[in-house]
Design brief:
By secondary structure, the protein is mainly α. The protein is built from 10 helices and no strands. It comes from Parageobacillus genomosp. 1.
């Protein structure tokens, strides 16, 4: 009878950066680290968004005659906003599931769409019951449903922006950033504004962010 010979492999050699999946409880050490990652990711999202706003054309001349550098800066700022908004949301999903394992893209698509639907519903309830903030839009703005392809297109544009993928420029079978902005900016902003209520860095001003804080101190150390 044929006997298969086996060989013992050193998996640390072949897969030195394999991800360790950890289940955790809310409030434990891993959860506290997950919270800090979410705070950092959302702060990156905010910085990118504020940069995008500051770079927006201020007059018709700027709109019609942007130079290449300004065009790159505007594109990059909004691209970073989209990337970090997506990663922030993935971080929230992992924390809710209390598990560090990667989540299938299709599952994230569904959860993103469901979150947008919940946000729209909550705004309608807030307006109807008189506790919406004064800066809220008219109720008609929230009488909407999340486009079915939003989650998928959000994931695809995030992937195109994160990798050296030709579809970033051409689109092909993926949405471009310009198309994403035209079709979905409203829904991205709903996710972002909802995150501001919970994860704005101003709410965690004195928090110690581990290596993020340590890096800032390191670069100013004297030899």
């Amino acid at each position: 009878m044929f006997q298969m010979r086996t060989k013992c492999y050193n998996f640390d050699y072949y897969f030195p950066e394999r991800v360790i999946i950890i289940k955790f409880e809310i409030g434990d050490e891993i959860d506290q680290l997950a919270v800090k990652v979410i705070i950092h990711e959302f702060s990156r999202c905010t910085i990118a968004f504020n940069t995008f706003i500051n770079l927006s054309p201020k007059n018709h001349k700027e709109l019609e005659n942007p130079n290449t550098e300004i065009s790159l800066l505007r594109y990059n700022a909004y691209a970073l906003f989209v990337q970090h908004l997506y990663e922030y949301f993935v971080g929230c999903i992992k924390r809710d599931s209390q598990n560090t394992k990667d989540i299938k893209g299709e599952e994230i698509d569904i959860l993103i769409n469901a979150e947008v639907e919940k946000i729209l519903r909550n705004w309608r309830l807030a307006i109807d019951n008189g506790y919406a903030p004064p800066w809220a839009n008219h109720r008609s703005y929230y009488e909407d449903t999340c486009p079915p392809e939003f989650g998928k297109d959000f994931r695809n544009i995030r992937n195109s922006l994160s990798h050296a993928d030709y579809r970033r420029i051409h689109g092909g079978n993926r949405i471009t950033l310009s198309e994403f902005y035209k079709k979905y900016h409203k829904y991205a902003m709903l996710l972002y504004q909802n995150g501001l209520e919970w994860w704005s860095i101003q709410k965690f001003d004195k928090i110690e962010l581990g290596d993020i804080t340590a890096f800032s101190r390191l670069i100013y150390q004297k030899d």
